[in-house]
Amino acid sequence: MIKNLKPLLITILMLPMLHVGFSIAAETGSALKNDNLRAEPYADAKIAGNFTRGESLVILQKKGAWLQVKTKKNTGWVRLLSVKRGAATTTNKTAGALAVASGRAGTGQVVSTTGVRGLSEQDLKAAKFNESEIKTLESYTLSAEQGRQFANAGKLKTIAFANLKAGKGDSK
Amino acid sequence: MRALVKNKQSNLAHKNLLTASLLAGLLSALSLPSAAFDLKGALKDAVQKEIGQKPEPVTPAETPNSNASAVDAATTNNTTTSAEATQPAFNWKNPSKDEEIALGREIAGNLLGAAPLVKDAALQKYVNAVGRWVASQSERPDLPWRFGVLESDDLNAFAAPGGYIMLTKGLYRQLTNEAQLAGVLGHEIAHVVKKHQLKVLQKQQLLNAGAGFLSGKYAKDNELISKAIGSGAEISARSLDKSAEYEADRLGLSYATRAGYEPYGLPDVLQVLGHSSKNDDSVALLFKTHPHPDERLSALSDAVGSRLDSVKNGKTLENRFYQLKN
After folding, report:
1. Chain A within 8 Å of B92 (Cβ-Cβ)?
2. Which residue in A127, A146, A158 is closest to B259 by CB distance?
3. Which terminus of chain A is more solvent-facing, meaning fewer CB atoms within 10 Å of its CB: N or C?
4. For residues B149 and B122, is the Cβ–Cβ distance under 8 A?
5. Dihedral sign (CA A35, A38, A43, A45)
6. Which domains does chain A have, with CATH numbers?
7. Domain map of chain B by residue range?
8. Is A70 on the interface with B (CB under 8 A)?
9. Cβ partners under 8 Å of residue A52, min gap 6
10. How far is A45 from chain B (nearest CA, A)?
11. CA distance A10 to chain B (A)
12. pLDDT, tens digit, for every residue of B118-167?
């Protein structure tokens, strides 16, 4: 009897893990713009619905530069940049995790473990020229050729891509 | 006669400054090397004097009204004479590349006075390698680009004219791959390429000159620089037009994409920054001087449209992304 239960138990225990592994967590998000949902992650795929800017959505999974999302009415694919990840509130998991990781949880104050202060406007105004530090900075200057070698080492290949121009709704 | 002497002096002064700039750029100086050397020292003195004697300098930006009226007064009086007597030292209207670099060096040096570099040569070299490669895809590949990570838990990044770019350790800590770093550096590179900070300084300088700030008998070239940047490193974090920030986002993404990176590095970082609370001290200055990350994301989204659909095989290179030691 107990033996029979074992696989079942394992399956039950595994289920949530599988779920997490499959999706990038059932993360919430909101629409950054009005856009169409597509049946598949391609620009010319069939339209499967639409959403409006500010609408909240559930992000199901990511494939390349596309996200599969669920709106109230439909499920479909949108471009990565159509969605702001995370809930609109400040109490989402990611922000919390980041705050914990950087020793900033809870108080909203910098709780620095290194004793280094911040860089406020006043700090910048009062700052005095530091000759030795600027020399150190300049000592790291690389040539264009050294940059290219670094790129080659990472197998980075330049591509043709014209500078982006301001979008239509970009006059804000 | 007097005017002639003045002219000669200012010509000489002009040469001196140029030489100083060349020295600063570690290039060889051809004439007046000793004078230039003095000048370089004086330049430092002037900055220190400026900051030391006036612990709380009143910047023109803070007193727009009094400044404006002063400009009016100067315009009606003797704009041309005072301008001609002191202006030739630093060509504010159209600074040369060397002048731009000399100016950026002063600002960057002040910034480093507020927060030193992280004592990790491998980190600094890594950031310079990524930045140099991205900058090579910009419209100004020939500048001597320099990059640094500042010892600060704040989340911010800075650009100064001539190719001086810095980001804080706090911001670096939020990054998870090289494409994101490339995007952040790309944004700052774009500020330099488009001379956003330089234009703010030029505008301010014209106000100063008009107001007679610099018409003193003993005004030296170096004082022009130190007075121009008045409040030290703060210029590198000064609020720019929102449109300048959106432009830097678009160009930063474009440069990183051309460099072969996955194009979503900068948007990724904006997503993360968007989750920061406005009340968090570490992003206070960033949020004060930039549109909210959500607005930037939205503007970037509008600009991108379907442009990235055909971009494939961009790299994130998280495997070689340099991990901070603490």
Report:
1. no
2. A158
3. N
4. no
5. negative
6. 2-85 (2.30.30.40)
7. 1-326
8. no
9. A31, A34
10. 13
11. 33
12. 999 999 999 999 999 999 999 999 999 999 999 999 999 999 999 999 99
